[in-house]
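Hi Q.,

Before the meeting this afternoon, I wanted you to have the zinc ion prediction in hand. No need to reply - just skim if you have a minute. The sequence and ligand are here:
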Amino acid sequence: MPALKILQYPDPVLKEKSLEVTAVSEGLKDLIRDLVDTLRSGPGVGLAAPQVGILKRIIVVDVTSRAAGGGLIILINPVITASKGSKTVREGCLSIPEYTADVKRAEDVIVEGLDEEGGAVKIASTGLEAIALQHEIDHLDGVLFIDRIEGVKGLFKRKIRL
Ligand SMILES: [Zn+2]
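Predicted structure with the ligand bound:
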């Protein structure tokens, strides 16, 4: 499948809350494959299903092009079950390509969910990978990084388009 079209802010779908996945069907596996292909075909380190217009709680993250990480992470119904520390990092988003912002998030997180086969997984993550996991899980609740900054002073226009 070709890369899926990524919705751009202010598309109202980006503000919606996604639904829990109740069964890992073949169709869902196809969707996950498409999400991974879409992530790999662009400059991002993570993608959430609602960004391609599908309101299901699925995220894919792979930060290894930019930082240390555990490779490709596929999570269905991800939940942050523990977090520690705080760190402010400049973030961007495939759905808001014109801007970046400094966003404060937890430094370390433990995320639990299901893998693409429906098996339970628990991931302990730090660094950019932990930031990306928090950013993508936010998408599942209709929260964008621009919702987490204090005023327009924290927002930066990109000099180079993605
Ligand atoms: Zn994003």
